[in-house]
Here is the input.
Amino acid sequence: MEAVARTLGPTASEAWRRLGSSLEAFIAEKQTFKLVYTTKPAWPVLPASCERAHIAVLDASFNPPTRAHAGLAQLRPAAPPHHFDAHLFLFSVRNADKGRGRPGDASPLQRLHMMLLLAQHLEQSDMQVAVALVDEPLVFAKSTLLHQHLCASAPLRLHWLMGSDTLVRVFQPKYYESEAALHLACDRFFVQEQSKMICAERSATSVQGIAGLPGATAPLSQATSHELHHLLEHNSLARHWLDNGGIQLHPLDPAVARHSSTAVRTFLREAQAQGMSHEELVAALQTMVPTPVVPYLATEHVY
Here is the structure.
């Protein structure tokens, strides 16, 4: 781990050393939001002429980060200004389905390590990136939480980047007290907070981890989600916000979209069982995860 940490810049190296204590304090003090890394101390740094800060939020389990996560982070809004002023990687210590996590998952600290590596990777493209912890499982509530805690020199507009599997879950009534509560949450998110959802389609094979395995034969043309299409055809609430611009669908390169955290975990467990050499392991991981994450997964035996 120390060898990986030494590859980071000075700001990220200092954040890396503090991650463990930051996470412990977050949980012990029952905090709800905490920035644990920012590209610049005054993140987000905005031009003086900026009238509204457009922040891209990538809210995921990062278990581990994949090339699909990096692809999502590099999406651009279709409407002006056609760029984001900054990016926020968000990790919730509490998941709506999985609670505090499942056996075999990377630990929260390991995920933060990998999120920091992903942030450093994207900063090479001149992105302003922050990494934050939240203790809230649902997107709508997270949005309100961010508006309460984030400070900038201009009003914020949050653009939530997600795969189609996440968008489908967002509109499942089982996560809300009632249909009315879901409608109210949508009104607060899309109207009052003026937040948006940018959805990149992911196929069922990629979500399940089939398409992303090395040597998989699932055709790249399967980068479409029948579940998403069913949602938008039969869920009037989701369709309403799609038609009104609150939800935007974006294409993602099928060669990138096919990768999933499930596939990476499956591959690593199979590689260990087969006694795969370090060289073969690294070569395969290079096709699945961002380059800085490769040595971490290859040496830390996370899964």
